[in-house]
Design goal:
alpha/beta, Rossmann fold, two-stranded antiparallel sheet, five-stranded parallel sheet, 28% helix, 4 helices
């Protein structure tokens, strides 16, 4: 069975970045709680790709800090890889040229061509008590193993958050 691809957004999904310039960028990055464990666990069952609407130099600097050995992320797509649709940047997953794709992002409107492939998460703004990645892990493992669909995982995630 071919491994699925997990497409992860960067800003407000994996990290929060505030008040920075080129020199202080990495000091201003706050990782979503549980991120290191999440990436390690997901890399065992998924090919992991970052797809951010931000600029290439910014994205690559943060990605390099999250994955200094280059073992987690297989590809990085940035703002120059996005398209424009009705005046808004969008992420067209067809550009990845992969068969089975699951996306995780805080903004579902960025995926008008692939709405059923993803799970929208609440934006991360640095809350140290955030537990979203821990809640996603078992669902994404079930998707990777073919036990549930991405749509079912998304519905279960929403239901669990609304309890």
């Amino acid at each position: 069975m071919a491994r699925s691809t997990l497409v992860l957004d960067l800003d407000q999904t994996l990290v929060s970045v505030v008040d920075h310039d080129e020199e202080t960028l990495l000091q201003c990055v706050t990782k979503r709680p549980g991120l290191d464990r999440f990436l390690k666990d997901m890399s065992q069952v998924y090919e992991i790709v970052v797809f951010s609407a931000s600029g290439a130099s910014y994205v690559k600097k943060i990605v390099s800090s999250l994955d200094p050995t280059g073992e987690i992320f297989s590809a990085v797509f940035t703002g120059s890889d996005t398209d424009w649709l009705s005046g808004q940047r969008v992420k067209d997953l067809r550009k990845l040229n992969r068969d089975k794709i699951v996306w995780i992002d805080d903004n579902a409107s960025l995926y008008p061509y692939n709405p059923k492939n993803g799970i929208q998460v609440p934006p991360f703004h640095g809350d140290p008590n955030d537990s979203i990645l821990g809640a996603l892990t078992p669902l994404l493992l079930e998707v990777a193993l073919g036990q549930i669909s991405v749509e079912n995982a998304s519905e279960l995630f929403v239901r669990a958050r609304n309890k």
